[in-house]
Amino acid sequence: MIKHNLFVANLLLAGFMAFSLSACTDDDEKEEQKQENNNQQQNDNDQDPNKPNEGSTNTVNGVSVSGKVNSYDYVDLGLPSGTKWATINVGATKPTEVGGEFAWGHSKPETDPMSLESGSIDFGNYKWCKGEKVVQENIYVWGDFTKYCTDATYGDVDFKTVLEPEDDAATVNWGGAWRMPTKQEIAELIEGCDWNWENNFNGSDMSGCIGVSKTNGNIIFFPKEGGYERYDGSEYYNHEWTSFWSASLSEHPHFVYHFSASNTKDVMTNSYTELFALGRHQICPVRAVVK
User: Fold this and answer.
1) Can you tell me the distance from the alpha carbon of 213 to that of 192, in angstroms, rounded to the nearest whole number?
2) Main-chain dihedrals φ then ψ at residue 179, nearest 5 degrees
3) Cα dist. 235→24, 50, 199, 231, 241 in Å?
4) What are residue 65's DSSP bridge partners?
5) Average pLDDT for consecutive 10-residue bins of the chain (291 residues)?
6) pLDDT of res. 234
7) pTM of the entire structure?
């Protein structure tokens, strides 16, 4: 009888210990899950808003969106340098809007109607210039430059060839790591995509240049900036174009590299897109990049 009672007691003790061990295991698993959730929350809180917030790429308003930086969308086109491109122009709210138009090195968009109509500002109103400069008697050059100059013939030499952050319209207006692209980054963009001109992009009635990444098929769009009737020697046709600034001064301090595309292919390059220099007092949209 005593042995029987001891046997029952041992069974009850073993059952209690097994139950306690199971309960402890469940509590441990819950605690581990709680810690993992806390760690994930901490990682989310630690996400730098100025760095690309990677995620799956989606299509929004006809363009690819791969993530955000500082609340602005970017597209990853799989470019070798890792440069990510904004999906809209600075000052725009969607891909089909031109946004602000800036003189190079100005952080505020141009608002003067005459300048917007002509596509340029007077050098007297250009921030980094004293005005015209006399080289020889009755011979003038545009721009007695006070910044971003590599030739004393054209102003005060400082050998600065890339916009500083305080003069970069993308950095000033969007903040964080956003900035205007360099000449090399625009060249990489042109090389890294297949290009075409769309007359009715995504059913918006807006025309413009569309690029499709050769690496991952993601899409970027640049809306038409302007247009006019043009004569090609035999007939008139509607010439349209789009453009945006680089941050890079050309070899001549009066000119700056910029991206340009039109609805007709260049006869020399057989391409819709090109990279060439434009007078820095002229006004262009800005498309930002980030890494």
Assistant:
1) 6
2) -160, 170
3) 86, 50, 20, 6, 19
4) 58
5) 41 40 47 51 47 74 96 98 98 97 97 91 89 61 86 92 98 97 98 96 95 98 80 64 96 94 77 91 96 93
6) 61
7) 0.78
CA distance 273 to 258: 11
For 42-65, b/e burial (b = at least 16 CB within 10 A) is eeeeeeeeeebeeeebeeeebbbb
CA distance 273 to 264: 9
What is the spatial distance between Cα 174 and Cα 163, in angstroms, rounded to a whole number?
A: 15
Q: Are 114 and 266 contacting, i.e. CB atoms less than 8 angstroms apart?
A: no
Question: What count of Cα atoms within 13 Å lies in the side-chain half-sphere of residue 155?
Answer: 21
DSSP 196: E
SS3 186: helix
- Can you tell me which residue has the tokens 């990279």? 275
| Three-class SS state of 275 | strand
CB atoms within 10 A of CB 29: 10
> What is the SS3 assignment for 236?
strand
Label residues 174-185 b or e (16+ Cβ within 10 Å = b).
bebbbbbbbbeb
Burial class (CB in 10 A: 0-12, 13-18, 19+), 106: buried
| pLDDT of amino acid 137 | 58
DSSP state of 233: S
3-state secondary structure (DSSP) of residue 209: strand
What pLDDT was estimated at residue 56?
73
Backbone phi, then psi, for 19, in 5-degree steps? -65, -45
Structure tokens at 63: 């363009």
pLDDT at residue number 44: 42
pLDDT of residue 227: 72
